[in-house]
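Table 4 source record.
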Amino acid sequence: MRIDELLAAAARDLSLAGIGEAAIDARLLLQHLTGLNRSQLLLHGDAVLDERTFERYQNLITERSHRIPLQHLIGSQEFWSMDFAVSPAVLIPRPETEFLLEQVLATCSGTLSTEALDMCTGSGVIAVVLAKELGCPVVAVDISETALRVAVKNFSRHQVAEQIQPVCSDLFAALASNQKFDLIVSNPPYIAEEQIDRLEPEVCRSEPRLALSGGPGGMKIIERIASEAHLFLQPGGWLFLEIGADQRKAVGTLFRLLAPHYSEVRVIDDWAGRPRVVQARHVPK
């Protein structure tokens, strides 16, 4: 079968499986397998794949039809115009987290004098961007050792391993009580436990529940981070958290309770007009 015919057939199969961007996924899987870019696939549309490559491609299409995430099949995801390794051990990076980082950089560029902390680092995308864009040392914390191995791979891939210290910890538990940061950034688990099984199959079946579930109502980890972060922030240091689109009211209530520790609390809507980021500044007692 010719490449152009193969791509068309694969796109039909993926579409029947309920995948929205079926033609794009079919093409990206073939690019991954052959090493050809989009233009080269078009130019060689009349070429025929060898039998082994054809079989491997058919297997990938079958796996994708079973709603295995595209990123897990190709082993990577683009974020901040960089290519990051991903695996089933980590949350696949999403554009919402780029928005989080845009808000961090808009507020903190040129102001840091000590380290930054990336809490719940996952694949390490936040830590890498902070290290590159702010030029500061970063501590990257995750409770999962397997997630940290993926993150460390990405630190090396993007030449920032010497700037970033990976720490396996249940949030702040393994940090020294006197360790202070100018900036704490986190994309924590914030999906309500009761909603996870209703998400897309790629998410609820393949992404780590530990990185998704914020407990009943989705606020458990956000509450823990906000309640402890001020103990690890320098006076005037900033906390930035990615939040769910339905959590504006709960976040507002939380930070009113924490008012003695924070000022300049602000919930920022993303480009679609949905609550996405809460920022707060530490006020020392």
